[in-house]
Specification:
mainly alpha, about 0% strand, disordered N terminus, transmembrane helix
Length: about 400
């Protein structure tokens, strides 16, 4: 037995020694494992807990700020009319916010335009610098002037409100003819006092909403950059649908650098602007409840809304006029990045769709009818009512089983 095993081993050894090495033999350790990079989309990096929390906060802020603007304007006008009208006849209970020297009124509302600019100017600068590839002249000449124009309207309207009140008002003590003198001597000045608080609160809120719009789909820029860099690195021959495909390499590099540098600051400023916009709405409600008459508040609200609409919805979107609209740049980053599909995938998808189409034009059979050996047990309602549907009769091999007729007692 042992001799037989030895002979078999010797035969196997001799065959192994005399056999030529086949071309199919290979050593996997010596093979270079290569992955085909063309036609594939780069995967995203793992999302950290910090990034998830940041995205959640930004999502809440976007839902708050980008509430339907038309509906918000309508709510402003309706609230100014009805809440103020009720307040003119039914005094609301006094509270801390009814005092003119409350903290929010003194340090925020009275210098409200300062707070609006302190957050909106750097936000506009960082977003516009990123979208224009660091073109400072374009930012200074075509984007920052929007806030300069808004400041001009704010100053002009509030100054006009004071002129109207001083010119067409009167003191209850007729020996005083100016508002300042009347108030200094403890008298009461009665005039048409268009609410500067209502104007600045509504106008600031609408300006913040408009200037915050570049943050919409801001994260798409990162995906566009990743896809375009991958496409250029592997020299993909397939036509690219990326919005950054027409950028030069230098512009692409500057965009990536500024995006990585300014995005944390842009997010932080956006959160601050959201909180400020919420504060403006709260203080607007307080103004409706405790200050001015209804007609004075409605007039201020209408002026603020008309000024906002004229500038941000009519003036700036006109390409023939200066300055540029919010978020104007050389690429449309606010559209979703399109996934790259190879020709093979497209052909495979087309073949699957073609295979899924029915080959005949026969009417569809309802699949929820119980069947026995492939044949329906009973007729459908359409078949029972003879709605132009032919049914095979018993004995023709189609329906071997028919339910018995109902019996009546």
């Amino acid at each position: 037995m042992s001799g037989r095993r030895k002979s078999a081993a010797n035969v196997g050894t001799s065959l192994g020694a005399g056999r030529r090495p086949s071309s199919m033999n290979f050593n996997i350790k010596n093979e270079t494992l290569r992955t085909e990079s063309r036609g594939t989309k780069p995967t995203s990096n793992p999302t950290s807990i910090k990034e998830v929390l940041t995205i959640a906060v930004l999502h809440f802020c976007k839902k708050t700020v980008f509430f339907d603007t038309r509906l918000k304007v309508a709510l402003y006008l309706l609230a100014l009319f009805f809440v103020s009208l009720i307040g003119d006849f039914v005094p609301f209970p006094k509270s801390y916010f009814s005092r003119s020297d409350n903290l929010f009124n003194v340090f925020f509302v009275k210098i409200g335009w300062f707070w609006t600019l302190i957050f909106s100017v750097p936000f506009l600068f960082f977003t516009s610098s990123t979208l224009t590839f660091g073109d400072r002249d374009r930012v200074l000449k075509h984007h920052l002037p929007r806030l300069a124009i808004a400041t001009f309207f704010w100053y002009s309207w509030t100054s006009l409100f004071n002129i109207i009140e001083n010119s067409y008002g009167r003191c209850n003590n007729k020996i005083y003819f100016t508002k300042r003198t009347c108030l200094n001597y403890g008298a009461y000045w009665k005039g048409f006092d268009i609410s500067g608080h209502v104007f600045i609160l509504i106008y600031s809120s609408l300006v913040l909403i408009e200037e915050c719009k570049p943050i919409i789909s801001w994260e798409n820029i990162k995906e566009h950059l990743k896809i375009e860099e991958h496409s250029r690195r592997v020299q993909d021959p397939n036509p690219s649908s990326n919005v950054l495909k027409n950028l030069e390499n230098k512009e692409l590099t500057v965009l990536k650098t500024m995006y990585d540098k300014y995005t944390p600051l842009i997010r932080l400023l956006f959160v601050a602007m959201t909180l400020l916009q919420i504060l403006w709405d709260i203080m607007l409600v307080c103004t409706m409840l405790y200050y001015h008459r209804m007609v004075e508040k409605v007039s201020a609200g209408i002026i603020a809304i008309v000024t906002w609409y004229f500038t941000y919805r009519f003036w700036y979107p006109s390409k023939q006029l200066w300055p540029e609209a919010v978020g104007t740049c050389n690429f449309k980053y606010q559209q979703k990045p399109a996934s790259t599909l190879t020709n093979v995938n497209l052909a495979r998808r087309a073949s699957l769709l073609a295979a899924a189409k029915p080959t005949t034009s026969s009417p569809k059979v309802t699949t929820d009818i119980p069947k026995f050996m492939g044949n329906p047990i009973y007729k459908t309602a359409a078949q029972r009512n003879d709605l132009n549907v032919e049914m095979p009769t018993a004995g023709q091999g189609k329906y071997d089983f028919q339910p018995p007729p109902p019996k009546f007692l």
